[in-house]
Amino acid sequence: MQTPELVEGDNHIFEDGITALCMLLARLSWPNRLADLYLKFDWKPERVSRIRWKHLLVFDVERLTPERLVTFTIAIQNRGAPLETCFGFIDCTLREIARPIYGQEAVYNGWKRKHCLKYQAVVTPDGIIIHLYGPVEGTKHDALNSMLMHLTGQSYYGDPAYPITEYLLSPFAGAAIGGDEQHWNRTMSKVRIIVEWCFKEVLQMFSYLDFTRSQKILSPIGIQYPVAVLLHNTHICLHRPQISQYFAGPEDEDVPELFAPPSLEEYFHYIE
To answer: Which domain does 117 fall in, by range?
Structure first.
């Protein structure tokens, strides 16, 4: 992961990289208090709260080559999907936060009736979240106005909240759709479910993010979920994940190398 030997806080306190990583994992894995981390790492709360990581989680055009994207489309077709150009699935997740004292209207979602922040993710058949956009206010529409990678001949597939464009498709809508349209929706939903699995796995590994009372708008909650997504991708690189097993099929003993998760060296090659 190219963890630096020393991590410097904004108050010029240094800690070795392995300890800083362990502190980050301990912080996100469960609703720990800073005082609990003090018992584990012998760091006073005011010192622990200063350590932060910065990262980049966007499309990696060096790893996501046209050839690799074609293998993703083949993997999706092999699961019975009728769409021949889809290489990834896009969806939006709502992360509930504590009700703020000021500016409640900006983060209140009337549909879910909760205060939240939204993140938009794109997932590929190797189980990696290749793009994360956010956070944005809970009042925004699910089809967030993010910069998606446009690829000739390739497309994303989302839920009915997304519009249909030259590079983005969604299910047929309406109560009067025919049998072919219903079959399309059913078969595509069976592969689109992987993006929901990713959202579930992030929260299972980092339960702190699901503890609403700790998600206060005045704390740096906007970077906590992206960091958890990056660590989730790291876990996918180290272990055979559920998603790549799903696309490999029960008859395959090993995940095909073409759409297996990348190694840590391959995934983190662009991290400075």
So the answer is: 66-267
